[in-house]
Structures are given as structure tokens and as C-alpha cells.
Design a protein that fits this description.
Elements (H helix, E strand, L loop, with lengths): L2 E5 L3 E3 L7 E5 L12 E6 L5 E7 L7 E7 L5 E7 L4 E9 L5 E8 L4 E8 L5 E8 L6 E2 L3 E4 L5 E10 L5 E10 L5 E6 L18 E5 L4 E7 L5 E6 L5 E6 L16 E8 L2 E8 L6 E8 L4 E6 L11 E7 L5 E8 L8 E8 L4 E6 L6 E8 L5 E7 L1 E2 L2 E2 L5 E5 L5 E2 L24 E5 L7 E6 L5 E6 L2 E2 L2 E5 L6 E9 L2 E10 L1
Antiparallel strand pairs: 1-7, 2-3, 3-33, 4-5, 5-6, 6-7, 8-9, 9-10, 10-11, 12-14, 13-14, 14-15, 15-16, 17-18, 18-19, 19-20, 21-22, 22-23, 23-24, 25-26, 26-27, 27-28, 28-34, 29-30, 30-33, 31-32, 35-39, 36-37, 36-40, 38-39, 40-41
């Protein structure tokens, strides 16, 4: 039997000058080492936040930890540990009967198991299951979990394998559990699967959805070479189809197509919203994209393109969508993305217009871990302190509740000019990467929108003047005919057609 300990955690609410509510979380038996302590969570219908992660030194024997933080300040935690083993909780889902399903890893130098724990809302451990690997591999990877239409829990993870001179690969694994934690079905995705599923040699799931009508799984997976793909499986985890996201002309190489990609919202069954980055660790720029499940990129919004956004390398973490019109994107920024930095949240509307932001200047050396939507249209962020050499601050993590009033709002409305708009003779036309737009007046804030022939907005960004020119980067557009409009002080200035080659 495992060692089971129930803790009431010392989590206290203290007053700050900002209007946002804020909690500081204290670990039961000491601050973890390393820099990634919280892995997953959810907010239930009562407004209680559940978090899973790890506690204790990463290099020694950390314990799995489950936190529950209520909206009124009530708080509790459960620590799961076994002597001589490292236990890591990295996925949590709320079942249909309000019980809590947790998955993770239990490992030491000789064994590695998939861990399944089931709790009630009072954090009483109801069931414990451990599953050994069925392939020769190094370790289980991070899990993802989702409920199907029958109340079962579908879990996806991967096993890391060292294939000698071919390098390290990640083999995808699916499990289906009933609400007691018993296995109904499982499958390992191995290399003998048919083409074009090249992703199977490097399967590390980013997100997973379940279609109750067709009982199919739709997975977002970065495959070999860094190319993101939408992959569909049936309810028995058999491969159906794959749609790679290839047509990204920003990318300088395959490995920079979508370097870390998160998506938590669907506009429809055929269209999703991405929060991702582009580039290497030193030039890790953020962007939001609307993408179809057929792999077509409909629209790209570079979050670093505006004059009033952060132009530093930043580590993307996650998004929250409290409704169909408001989206929050949390991250921390620093010249090097893997270092601690300052936590930030951007607020976008359905048109992907940046309408507000919140920067946490009160706490240094933080990494944004998670963000969750709240019923009042706001969000909750989890910002962990970095206890990682040489940034070992040992500061307590911050859980912050943000409402619409906690954001600095950006005016983004446009007053149309009913008069005939002058032509500005932008050049080169046709163009490949940059369109130069001559101006005769010095504008303080200049905004540009680019439309396709159907009137869809494909780009919407601030453009900084360079002398008597506005330089518009159109490298993300497909070849074709487009229109651009230039605005300043919320008024349309001029419009023109151009050809992208």
C-alpha cells in the first residue's frame, strides 16, 4: 500500500494594492526544486480550483500533490508518496459524478508506471491503480485526459524509447478507464502503422477533444521535424486520418513551424484557435492563429506586432476562453524563454483584436503555469516562483483571479471615412515579403488591416513608421490578391490593392 497523507495546506489571502484577488500557496513540506511544479487543473461549477503537480526536489524523490482552493479562501491538499519512488501528477479531469480523476507517473531507477488516482471532492482517495509499460522504453510522458459520452475517461500519454543511432522517439499510448479506474481498453501506437502517419515516431500530444456525435478523438500532435498535425482516431484508438499544418510561410525551417502549440478553444467543429510561438529559444515570438482541422491556416495575429505589446522572447503557456467573445492568453516574458520572468495576460476579442492586457509587476522571477476561465468572464492564473539555479527565490506561488476591470484596455474601434480614399502607390507591387507604404504625415499610432477578396480580415496589427514609409510584413500571406487599409486615430486614411507572390 502507498503512503497516504492528508494535509490541510496553509494557503492565505492577503491584501494588495491591485484590485485583483490574490492567493499565495504554501507547500505542505517544502518548496520544490526545479522550475515546473504545476501541470494541470480545472475550475468546477462551485468555483473551486483544483491543481495537480509535484512537491519536493526534482532530482530526488518528489511527491505528487493535489490542491483544492475554494472561491471563499477554503483550501486543502493531498500528497501522494511512496518511499523510494518519484511520483508526479500531471493530468486531472472532473468526472460526471464530481469525483476527481488524476493521472501521472510513479518511477524509480528500475521501474516506471502510469499512476491513476481517484478522489472525491473532499480529497479522500477512493481508488489507486498502477499500470506497467508494455514496451521497452525509458519513461512514461505527460498525460492528457478527457471524458467520452459514456462517462469513461480517455487518457493519452507516450513512452520514450531510445532507438540507438536513430535517436530518442516517443510512442503514443491510449487508455480508456471506467469511473472506478479499471482499464476498458488500451493501445500502443507503434512504428508499423501505415503512412502518412509519420507522427507516430515522435508522438507527444498537445491537446485532445472528443466528438460525442461520431465518438471520435481529434488530437493535436507535433510530429517528427516539428510539424503540427490534427489526427483523428476512432473510439478504439484506430487511426483514421491526419492533416498536417504545412502552409506556414513564416517558418524558416520545419522545426520552427509551431514551436510549442496550445489550443483550448473551438469556434466550430471544423475550426480551432491556436496559441503558439515561432522561432528558437532566443527569438520565441508569440502569435494566435485560426486554423481548420484540415490543416489550413485562416488567420495569423502576431502578438508582438503592435507597438503596445511586449517585444521580448516569451514562453507561451496556455489560453482560457470564458465565452465565444473573450480569450485570455497567459505567458511570461524574458530575453530567454526558459528563464523566470514577468507574468502577463493578453485579452483578445473574437475578431482576434488585442483589447487589453495585465502585467504582474509586483512579483519578480515568476513563470506562468496555467490559466483557467471563470464564470464571470474573467480568468484565474497560476504563477509559480522559480526555485531553479541560479534563480532560487523560494518565493511562494501566486494564484490570481482577474476580472475585466483588472485589465488595461486598448481602444481598437474604427470610424470609417465615407470620403473617397486616396491611393498611396505602395511598392513593390507585386511583393514577396515586405510592402512599403509611403506616407506624407507623421502619425503617432498607425494600424493596418489586410483583407482577402471575400472580405475576411487576415492581418490586423499596428505598423510603426520608418521615416516616410510604413513597412508591412506580408510574408505570412499565401500568393494572391489582397486589399490593405491604413487607420490612424481610429479613422480610415487610405486603402489599396496589392498582389502577393
Amino acid at each position: 500500500m502507498s503512503k497516504k497523507i492528508f494535509f490541510f495546506v496553509s494557503i492565505y489571502l492577503y491584501c494588495v494594492s491591485l484590485p485583483a484577488q490574490e492567493w499565495s500557496v504554501r507547500y505542505p513540506t517544502g518548496h520544490p526544486s526545479g522550475y515546473n511544479h504545476f501541470h494541470d487543473g480545472f475550475i468546477d461549477k462551485d468555483g473551486t480550483l483544483s491543481l495537480v503537480g509535484q512537491e519536493g526536489p526534482t532530482k530526488d524523490f518528489p511527491d505528487a500533490i493535489l490542491f483544492r482552493v475554494g472561491p471563499n479562501g477554503s483550501h486543502s491538499a493531498y500528497k501522494y508518496s511512496k518511499p523510494g519512488f518519484r511520483s508526479l501528477a500531471n493530468c486531472i479531469v472532473e468526472m460526471s459524478d464530481d469525483r476527481i480523476f488524476v493521472t501521472g507517473n510513479l518511477m524509480n531507477d528500475t521501474s516506471d508506471r502510469l499512476m491513476v488516482l481517484i478522489f472525491d471532492k473532499g480529497l479522500n482517495l477512493l481508488a489507486e491503480r498502477l499500470y506497467d509499460k508494455e514496451v521497452d522504453s525509458l519513461t512514461f510522458g505527460k498525460s492528457r485526459a478527457i471524458l467520452d459520452s459514456h462517462g469513461n475517461v480517455i487518457v493519452s500519454t507516450y513512452a520514450t524509447q531510445n532507438n540507438g543511432y536513430k535517436g530518442v522517439f516517443h510512442r503514443g499510448i491510449f487508455f480508456k478507464f471506467n469511473q472506478q479506474g479499471d482499464t476498458l481498453r488500451h493501445r500502443y501506437l507503434l512504428a508499423e502503422e501505415p503512412d502518412p502517419v509519420a507522427y507516430l515516431v515522435d508522438f507527444r500530444l498537445r491537446q485532445m477533444w472528443y466528438d460525442s456525435k461520431t465518438e471520435r478523438l481529434l488530437c493535436l500532435v507535433p510530429g517528427y521535424g516539428g510539424v503540427m498535425s490534427f489526427i483523428t482516431f476512432d473510439s478504439d484508438f484506430n487511426y483514421i486520418e491526419e492533416h498536417p499544418i504545412w502552409n506556414d510561410q513564416i517558418a524558416k525551417s520545419d522545426r520552427t513551424l509551431y514551436r510549442d502549440c496550445y489550443t483550448d478553444h473551438w469556434f466550430s467543429e471544423e475550426e480551432a484557435l491556436f496559441f503558439s510561438s515561432i522561432g528558437d529559444a532566443d527569438h520565441n515570438r508569440l502569435r494566435v492563429s485560426r486554423v481548420t482541422t484540415q490543416g489550413e491556416i485562416l488567420e495569423i495575429f502576431p502578438l508582438n506586432a503592435r507597438a503596445d505589446t511586449i517585444d521580448d522572447a516569451a514562453q507561451p503557456r496556455c489560453m482560457a476562453a470564458p465565452n465565444d467573445s473573450t480569450f485570455y492568453f497567459s505567458f511570461h516574458y524574458h530575453p530567454w524563454g526558459y528563464y523566470p520572468g514577468t507574468a502577463c495576460v493578453y485579452q483578445l476579442n473574437k475578431q482576434l483584436e488585442l483589447v487589453g492586457y495585465h502585467i504582474d509587476d509586483d512579483h519578480d522571477s515568476y513563470r506562468t503555469c496555467l490559466i483557467f476561465p471563470t464564470a464571470d468572464g474573467g480568468c484565474i492564473t497560476v504563477n509559480d516562483s522559480c526555485n531553479y539555479y541560479p534563480f532560487a527565490t523560494k518565493t511562494l506561488p501566486i494564484v490570481r483571479k482577474l476580472g475585466p476591470a483588472d485589465f488595461i484596455h486598448i481602444p481598437w474601434s474604427i470610424t470609417e471615412n465615407n470620403q473617397a480614399l486616396p491611393s498611396v502607390n505602395a511598392y513593390p507591387n507585386p511583393c514577396f515579403e515586405t510592402l512599403h507604404i509611403p506616407i506624407t504625415t507623421e502619425y503617432q499610432h498607425t494600424r493596418c488591416q489586410v483583407y482577402d477578396l471575400q472580405g475576411r480580415i487576415l492581418m490586423d496589427c499596428m505598423v510603426q513608421p520608418s521615416g516616410t514609409l510604413l513597412n508591412l510584413d506580408v510574408s505570412t500571406l499565401k500568393p494572391g490578391l489582397y486589399h490593405f487599409r491604413i487607420y490612424s486615430d481610429q479613422t480610415t486614411l487610405f486603402s489599396e490593392e496589392f498582389l502577393k507572390k
